[in-house]
Write a structure and sequence with these properties.
Layout lengths: L2 E6 L8 E6 L4 E6 L16 H7 L8 E4 L2 E4 L2 H19 L4 E5 L7 H14 L4 E3 L6 H11 L7 E2 L6 E5 L3 H4 L9 H10 L3 E5 L5 H5 L2 E3 L6 H14 L12 E2 L1 H7 L5 H8 L3 H13 L4 E4 L1 H4 L4 H14 L9 E2 L7 H7 L6 E5 L6 E3 L8 H6 L8 E5 L3 H4 L3 H8 L4 E5 L12 E2 L13 H4 L4 E4 L15 H16 L5 H12 L2 H11 L6 H5 L5 E5 L4 H4 L7 E2 L6 H10 L11 E4 L26 E3 L1 H6 L7 E6 L2 E9 L7 E3 L14 H5 L26 E7 H7 L1
Parallel strand pairs: 6-7, 6-17, 9-10, 9-13, 10-11, 12-22, 17-18, 18-19, 23-27, 24-26
Antiparallel strand pairs: 1-2, 2-3, 4-5, 4-19, 8-14, 15-16, 20-21, 23-28, 24-27, 25-26, 25-28
Helix pairs in contact: 2-19, 3-19, 3-21, 4-13, 8-10, 8-11, 8-13, 10-11
The structure holds ligand MGD (2 copies), iron/sulfur cluster and molybdenum atom (MO).
The site of one ligand MGD has 31 residues, from helix 16.
Length: about 725
């Protein structure tokens, strides 16, 4: 008998509604849920991945232990007991910090896992805690923490009402929006134009979003901070300053006016590669629009001045009166009010409270930048990492300098991966603990509703029951917490004793129910379940005063952290351009049919030409006597990779682009389809010592590279 389920897709941040028809055991079809008030039937090709993953014979369905080249099936009890025993004995021998933990993106797309993360991290008793945040959104969270006093108080573009959208370093048409949960971005962007508004994209690649924008400007990678400083200079110079309804709570306007004085459009123009008159024109358009929003993502986050650029974008929005007004950037009022809860629990963030042992990189929210992980494994002495737990992360492809990490993993005594596949990272594990399939679990996208362009909420119940002998990610974490405690052999502390049974009774569903009841819309899980298509709770509303959590309840326009960076930017204006030194600059891009390193094993997505190529401007190719389609060698100080090159006018001269998440042809990887179309791992040539000094975020974009033909290089050897 056929059954129709309504669910929310948890692959990316868009939270599209799905209509999944099954016969009780098999998936018959996956379509967009037309009755979902947010996505209205929209889905992208990746929605079909749910079926591929559910059916994938390569997906692990029980714990496995590595025995030489083979994997043997073991019971959950044995697996959990062995893992906890080994981890604790390593900690007893080498100290608590000898254990490192890394979690990746999918852990944040599952509310139950997310709620269990904090107690799990605590139970590890180690400072070596890492996540994908430090190769992603750390600058935004840090800026929210420093300016508004709460890392979870993130301002979100009010895309549905804005009259002017200035996009720097983001490609929402392919990524489907990030730190901006919005289904069907293309339609939302088109609507801006239909309302008579404008979209301007600033990007070293004329990407898919730029292709539908009103204007696109190439910018030299890594120079957005200078562009924004020149915009701010122009705003003050031309009297365009207006901080609207937040005037009374903004501190530091006079200091800002002084700070941006040296950055005239003329001075920055050569370096950013945008004519001074265009910078002025864009500034005037932005500042005089009825409402405007400056939005940026990976291209401004994981670059040399990632946190400074993120801060300056926030400042541009504030001083043009676009913070906290419809059509500008606004704060959400989500059903599960994460910012409010963080405030209540006094967990609004921390920065630089301690530093990594070897490189001295700053902690953020108790986690260290993942760039520090390899050196923490390599460098002997007290606190050296000797064991690793990964959860829903694939660091061997996602972290810069994969070669170094690979060598460092060889120093470890024990590795555990909580993952659904034997992939580039989990192949190194001693034990893999696989959770049940995502369709076998209920879902609630707490984090992404808090980042949504409308206040929306949706609870998905599982499409299939969980197999009898399976565990969800949160159950694996819970079992590990208990087993670690018992392996340590001490009587659990009083909070520990209360905590554990409490967690069993007070499972993630009950926690969510409480969050909903305490939330601003006074909902409950029961009420949500009665609305399987989700509930639209209305547009974003002005609420900055409730959100601000700084000691004086004022917005800190200039956190001191960035002053040194502004000085460095000023000096950079006299330095040579990367091109003058003979290098090209490497940036990344995302694939419509992949999700970082995964979904490459999905037959419905991975057909036709593989998307892992190097893109180069035809003029750069001509100078090097390259022909379209030839294999080229791309080198940095870390080594080199060989990859097919495509010429395209999309690329700014002097800049080349390679996507990340590829390179599946490694021994032991069990991804049958992905191995036949492996692509090349760009992180073999990215550097882990390139860091945004303001935050500790890795620099993944704007890296100097030398590109030669393979023959040329061989000839030179
Ligand atoms: N050069 C370069 N590097 C980059 C980037 C870039 O743009 N350029 N982008 C960076 C960014 S933004 C990010 S977020 C990171 C991503 O980096 P990571 O988060 O480290 O890696 P992912 O590729 O997202 O891998 C997700 C893993 O989770 C597993 N998985 C999927 N679903 C589940 C589940 O339900 N439970 C469990 N336990 N496991 C699951 C998959 O099999 C896979 O191993 O990469 C970063 N690295
Ligand atoms: N289909 C698909 N969707 C995804 C993902 C995926 O892998 N596939 N990954 C998800 C994840 S984890 C994330 S974090 C988001 C990311 O979402 P986005 O940031 O929207 O996606 P990217 O494609 O990384 O876009 C970065 C843009 O920055 C540009 N850029 C590079 N360097 C610079 C620079 O110095 N300055 C400027 N101005 N621009 C620069 C690049 O050319 C690119 O167009 O996407 C999410 N959605
Ligand atoms: S856009 Fe994102 S949430 Fe929507 S169907 Fe595609 S992967 Fe799923
Ligand atoms: Mo990401």
């Amino acid at each position: 008998m056929q059954k129709t389920h309504y669910a929310v897709c948890n692959i990316c941040e868009s939270t599209c509604g799905l209509e999944i028809v099954t016969d009780g055991k098999n998936i018959i079809s996956i379509k967009g849920d037309r009755q979902n008030p947010f996505s209205r039937g929209h889905i992208c090709p990746k929605a079909q991945a749910h079926k591929d993953i559910y059916n994938d014979p390569d997906r692990l369905r029980h714990p496995v232990r590595r025995n030489g080249d083979h994997w043997e099936k073991i019971s959950w009890n044995e697996a959990i007991r062995e893992v906890a025993g080994r981890l604790v004995s390593i900690q007893k021998k080498h100290g608590n910090d000898a254990l490192a933990f890394y979690y990746g993106d999918p852990a944040l797309h599952n509310n139950a896992t997310f709620l269990m993360l904090k107690p799990f991290k605590k139970s590890l008793k180690s400072k070596n805690l890492y996540s994908a945040i430090s190769v992603d959104s750390l600058p935004k969270m840090l800026v929210s923490y420093l300016m508004y006093g709460n890392q979870v108080a993130n301002s979100i573009p009010d895309i549905d009402r804005t009259d002017y959208m200035l996009i720097l370093g983001a490609n929402p048409l392919v990524s489907n929006g990030s730190l901006m949960t919005a289904s069907n971005i293309k339609k939302r962007l088109k609507n801006i134009q239909e309302r008579g508004g404008r979209i301007v994209v600033i990007d070293p690649r004329k990407n898919e979003t730029a292709a539908i924008a009103d204007d696109h400007y190439f910018i030299r990678p890594g120079t957005d901070a200078l562009f924004l400083l020149a915009m701010l200079h122009t705003i003050f110079r031309e009297g365009l300053y207006n901080n609207g309804n937040v005037l009374s709570i903004v501190k530091g306007v006079d200091e800002l006016r002084e700070l941006v004085k040296p950055f005239t459009p003329e001075r920055v123009s050569r370096r950013v590669s945008i004519p001074a008159d265009d910078i002025r024109k864009l500034t005037r358009e932005f500042a005089t629009a009825e409402s405007a929003v400056c939005y940026g993502r990976m291209g401004i986050s994981t670059q040399e001045y990632g946190s400074t650029t993120t801060w300056l974008m926030e400042v541009v929005n504030i001083v043009t009166g676009n913070l906290d007004r419809p059509g500008g950037v606004m704060f959400t009022t989500p059903a599960a009010n994460l910012a409010g809860i963080a405030k209540l629990l006094k967990e609004t963030g921390s920065f630089n409270q301690h530093r990594s042992r070897v490189g001295g990189l700053p902690e953020f929210n108790g986690e260290l930048p993942v760039a520090a992980l390899a050196e923490e494994m390599e460098t002997s002495g007290p606190g050296q990492v000797k064991a690793l737990v990964t959860l829903a992360g694939n660091i061997c492809l996602s972290r810069p300098n994969s070669g170094r990490l690979l060598r460092a993993l060889g120093n470890l005594e024990y590795i555990v991966s909580i993952d659904i596949y034997i992939n580039e990272t989990s192949r190194h594990a001693n034990i893999i603990l696989p959770p049940a399939c995502s369709l076998e679990e209920d879902h609630f996208e707490a984090i992404f509703y808090a980042l949504a362009v409308r206040n929306i909420v949706n609870y998905s119940t599982s499409v299939f029951p969980k197999p009898v002998d399976a565990k969800h990610d949160w159950e694996i974490l819970l079992a590990l917490i208990a087993a670690l405690n018992s392996a340590r052999g001490f009587l659990p502390s009083i909070p520990g004793r209360i905590m554990h049974p409490f967690m069993r009774v007070f499972n993630p569903k009950r926690q969510l129910d409480l969050l909903l009841r305490l939330g601003p819309h006074s909902l409950s899980l029961k009420k949500l379940k009665q609305s399987p298509h989700g509930i639209d709770l209305g547009p974003l509303e002005p609420r900055v005063k409730q959100v601000i959590n700084t000691p004086d309840k004022k917005i800190k326009l200039i956190p001191e952290n960035f002053l040194k960076e502004v000085e460095r930017l000023n000096k950079s204006l006299d330095e040579k351009l990367p091109l003058e030194k003979g290098a090209l600059q490497l940036i990344g891009r995302r694939s419509r049919k992949g999700m970082n390193s995964w979904l490459h094993n999905c037959p419905s997505l991975q057909r036709g030409k593989i998307e892992c190529t190097l893109l180069m401007n035809p003029e750069d190719a001509r100078q090097r006597e390259f022909e379209n389609g030839q294999i080229v060698k791309v080198a940095t100080s870390n080594g080199s990779i060989e990859i097919e090159m495509e010429t395209t006018l999309e690329m700014m001269p002097g800049v080349v682009s390679i996507p990340h998440g590829w390179g599946h042809d490694l021994p032991g990887v069990k991804l049958s389809l992905a191995k036949t179309r492996p692509g090349v791992n760009v992180n073999l040539i990215t550097n882990d010592d390139l860091i945004d000094k303001g935050s500790g975020t890795s620099v993944l974009y704007g890296i100097p590279v030398v590109v030669t033909s393979v023959e040329q290089l061989k000839g030179n050897l």
